[in-house]
Design a protein that fits this description.
Strand content: 15-25%
Oligomer: single chain
Number of helices: 4
Radius of gyration: 20 Å
Helix content: 55-70%
Length: 173
């Protein structure tokens, strides 16, 4: 076996260990978040099941159940705050910053689908007109969904403005 072969094997082993430790870290984040959220559901006397998953490079925790609108709030504002609190609980427990995504009652999944549809319509309008198109103010989650859809379509997008009125501009190539 050559030194080059040995070097490649070592790199592959290191990559495998990093992927394994990342998966373990994300699973730990999900476990901590689930414990925190179960306690919150108990305090609020709400029924819900906790589902944990790992998508890409982030832990995803979902609260599934009926009558959970109080945890979503108007335009997802309570959900955003709950996600921030859950991330803080994870940081307190693990000592590491968390990019955990929280969904309640499928709200984010539905919102993601709506935003992808909106992005497709705007992408088509920009392709036809050749002019940039601005969208309304969005949360960071919403902007990311739009940016991802625009990039996938081969166009360019930028976030402009200041929070809480930050918005996406879709531009032709």
């Amino acid at each position: 076996m050559s030194d080059a072969d040995t070097g490649v094997e070592l790199e592959q082993a290191d990559a495998g260990e990093r992927a394994s430790s990342t998966a373990e870290r994300l699973e730990r984040e999900g476990d901590v978040a689930a414990d925190y959220l179960e306690g919150l559901l108990d305090i609020a006397d709400l029924d819900g099941d906790i589902d944990m998953d790992v998508e890409g490079d982030r832990a995803v925790v979902s609260i599934i159940g009926d009558d959970l609108d109080v945890l979503v709030g108007r335009d997802g504002k309570v959900l955003d705050a709950l996600q921030d609190l859950t991330r803080l609980a994870v940081v307190r427990e693990t000592g590491e910053r968390s990019r955990l995504m929280l969904d309640v009652g499928g709200y984010r999944a539905r919102r993601r689908a709506e935003l992808v549809d909106l992005a497709k319509r705007v992408i088509e309008a920009v392709r036809v007109s050749g002019e940039p198109e601005s969208l309304g103010a969005m949360t960071p989650f919403e902007r990311k969904v739009v940016h991802d859809a625009v990039a996938e379509a081969g166009l360019v997008s930028e976030s402009e403005g200041e929070e809480p009125r930050r918005y996406v501009v879709v531009k032709p190539v």
